[in-house]
Amino acid sequence: MATFKVYKLHFTAPLHISNQHEDENASLKTIHSDTLYAALISCLAKTGYSIPQDGDLGFTISSMFPYFQKDEDNAPVYFLPIPLHHKQAEISDPTMLKKVKRVQWVDSSFYGKVLAGKSLFEGTENYSRIQESYLSDVQLPEDANGSREFVRSEVSQRVTLTSRIGEEDAKPYYIDKILFRHHSGLYFIAEGETTLLEKALSILSAEGIGTDRNVGFGFFDFTTDSLTIDLPSQANHQMALSLLIPKSKEQMEMLMNSERVAYDFMRRGGWITTYPYMTLRKNAIYGFLPGSVFHKEMDATCSVLGKIVNLKPEVEGIEIDHPVWRNGKSIMLPINL
After folding, report:
1. What is the residue-wise DSSP string for 60-75?
2. 188 has a pLDDT exceeding 90
3. Tens of pLDDT along 248-296?
4. Is this prediction's pTM over 0.85?
């Protein structure tokens, strides 16, 4: 059993997170650990804090995951990503297969079973816990359309003017904004010394996170809590809770040393967000996504793997006066397959 410190973000405004194609019409519904870490570093730099030369602020964070909370007086239900190599149920009813495959998020109270390598439906085939993309004993309220999704996407139209005096036609565009029902939001796990994290998060809550902050998106309040997860007595694999960039070729080979490895990855890069370099792109790197499962030596401990990399580009005639950090250190949970 392990107890983690978590930070709950309750958004007081819509949220838009650019996807890797930078498409305004579609927003991610989670914030990856490297994006959040970069925002925290930026906030500290604005206060004059001297960022360490290796970019390490002394803590490691998970990516952000959804939590459901009906109101301030009710306990939150924390959801974690279903591992990419989760043991599937022996489904006798083929019509339920599609329903089972929709599950992306598992209530933390069931996660010990997931990490032990057991099927969530073993024996009883209990499908009543499945509520859209969530698996929980807690009944999620339905909205007016009968949906139990408490993190919802809503597309709205906006207009941009190419001339301040209106001589050119207005150009409409669409933006996908993420809204949270009830008192729900996103949370992340933190490991290590969190004093700097809380200082930076206080600034970030007022500045907002994500894109379109200039039109009021991305603002939030935050509180701290704890999350207990049952760990298996032994484990032969491990699962990433953050975006992971392996530290070395040797670490990569160790992680891949199993026929049951299952992973997905994403290209990470984007634009530099500090003046006057905002027209410059960062270098790009690929990272493994949360939920990816890798080999582990036979033990059942949590760990932190990966590295922080500098994506500062080399641009002829321009000297960028600061590093551009991308944090690929990940909190790893043991999982038995």
Report:
1. EEPPPEEEE-SSTTSP
2. yes
3. 999 999 999 999 999 999 999 888 877 788 788 889 999 999 999 999 9
4. yes
Q: Are strands 105-107 and 134-135 parallel, antiparallel or unpaired?
A: parallel
Specify the DSSP element, H or E, that contains 201: helix 195-207
Q: Give the end-to-end CA distance of the chain in Å, rounded to a whole number.
A: 18
Q: Please state, as a whole number, how many other Cβ atoms lie within 10 Å of the Cβ of residue 271.
A: 12
Tallying the residues shown for the chain, one arrives at: 337
272-279: which pairs have CB atoms within 8 A and are 24 or more residues apart? 272/320, 272/324, 273/42, 274/42, 274/45, 274/322, 277/318, 277/320
Any residues with CB less than 8 A from the CB of 324 and at least 6 apart, and which? 272, 282, 283, 310, 311, 312, 313
Separation CA 201–CA 277 (nearest Å): 24
Which tokens sit at 119?
């099927």
Percent helix, strand, coil in the chain (nearest 5)? 15, 30, 50
